[in-house]
Amino acid sequence: MEFEHLEAAWNSPANTPDDKARAYLMEEVMKTLKARRRREVLLFAVPVTAMSIFTAIAVQAVSTGRMDPAREWGGLAMMGVCWLIIVAMLIVAILMRHRGRSDGSVRDTLAAMLTANRRARTNMRIFWMMLPVFFAPMIAGVWQLRDVGKATERDTWQMLFVFGVAMVASIGWNLGRYFLVMKPEQRRLEGLLSEYE
């Protein structure tokens, strides 16, 4: 169910639906909330899985001597920053976990949706705070690969180009999502909650 449909139903002159219509509306809102929670879990599980695989590969490379942490610390620092972001997002999810519960009432469901929105916006802020911290180890890691002979000069520039394109795409995606999806949704939910109270 889209927010426009919910808002239209909320503001309609006949906003005193019978029990059957009210049950249907609540079911649709709960479906939206459950789908959002499933999507959040999936969007958290994918990077955690990827980082776990990358960490296992890095541990194996260091333990077999294929990587010298003293000379190639940039990649390990990049990995550390990624893990910091994941841990920060997990802490936010734990701290906001109980605020987003719904007991089935319309008001509590809207409050839960607003909490989920707040959590997603907080995760985006964490991303923005960690972005400058990520650049230094990324650049250092790429140059260290060149310095130890694992990448040519051409490879180094190609890696920097690919990483740059990926970072610009990620920044664009997060900016668009924050300002075009999350902020308007926040305003709509706050408006609906204020009308409800």
Overview of the structural elements:
The two termini are 22 Å apart. It is elongated, with a radius of gyration of 22 Å. The model has no long low-confidence stretch (mean pLDDT 83). Helix 2 runs parallel beside helix 4. The longest helix has 45 residues, at 19-63. Helix content is 83%, strand content 0%. It is mainly alpha-helical and 197 residues long. The protein has helices at 3-11, 19-63, 73-96, 106-147, 153-196.
How would the blueprint of this fold be written?
Layout: H1 3-11, H2 19-63, H3 73-96, H4 106-147, H5 153-196
Low-confidence stretches: none
Query: Main β-sheet: number of strands, strand sense, barrel status?
Result: none
**How many separate helices?**
5
Compute the number of strand runs: 0
Structural class by secondary-structure content: mainly alpha
N-to-C CA distance: 22 Å
| Rg calc | 22 Å
Question: Summarize this, please?
Answer:
With 197 residues, the chain is mainly alpha-helical. The protein has helices at residues 3-11, 19-63, 73-96, 106-147, 153-196.
Features:
197 residues, mainly alpha, elongated
